[in-house]
Specification:
The protein has 216 residues and is mostly helical. It is built from eleven helices and no strands.
């Protein structure tokens, strides 16, 4: 019997990658919708073109699948932050651009925020087991750090805040706007994701961060 060709091996690898990606996509929706405790691997298998046995083969178990979905969700925003080109912009414009990028991502990835909220309910007990954890913070901190250094050198930014301070300010606005959408609307009758208000809130975020950094 002839040995498998390299093309056959590559095809199998592509199929495995597609299957794994499909499982992750469906698992993300399931965990985001029902939480870690409520999600069922049987349901995830039923909504994919694979089986429960194959899910365990690829990921090991429910906890490992949940952690993989969480890692993947974080990796998307960290990848965007790591690749964003702001070094050609002046510090003020660069900070605004990064804030807008986070605004856009969080608005278009509500399941990311649901997963983060669920993991906070679990006190990050799963995330702290991640081998990727040390790398999940680097892109955001590195990019912000470079911008802050340039802004301080130019005499534009205050020197008593660090990259994590700024990251917290940006994330607070973006997370609140999306994660608290329904309770805020129920109490105040205002939909924070109303398209008519989007540009206003996007500018508001940039203004808040710039005013914070340039305050004396």
């Amino acid at each position: 019997m002839a040995a498998p060709t390299s093309d056959t091996g590559e095809a199998r690898q592509r199929d495995a990658e597609r299957t794994r990606a499909e499982i992750l996509e469906v698992a993300t929706l399931e965990f985001a919708d029902k939480g870690y405790a409520g999600a069922r691997v049987d349901e995830i298998a039923a909504r994919t073109s694979t089986t429960k046995r194959m899910i365990y083969y690829y990921f090991g178990g429910k906890e490992q699948l949940y952690l993989a979905a969480l890692e993947n969700a974080y990796s998307v925003i960290r990848g965007i932050e790591g690749e964003v080109d702001v070094d050609h912009l002046d510090p003020v414009s660069a900070i605004r651009r990064l804030a807008e990028l986070t605004f856009d991502h969080h608005e278009s990835h509500p399941n990311f925020l649901r997963l983060v909220s669920i993991e906070n309910i679990h006190r990050a007990e799963h995330l702290t087991k991640s081998d990727l954890l040390p790398r999940l913070a680097d892109p955001a901190v590195d990019v912000l750090g470079r911008i802050l250094e340039r802004g301080r050198a130019a005499g534009q930014f205050r020197d008593d805040v660090d990259a994590l301070d700024v990251h917290m300010v940006i994330s607070s606005f973006c997370v609140f706007r999306t994660a608290n959408r329904y309770t805020f609307q129920a109490i105040f009758q205002r939909d924070m994701l109303d398209p008519a208000r989007r540009d206003h809130y996007r500018r508001m975020l940039g203004d808040l961060v710039i005013d914070f950094l340039t305050a004396r």
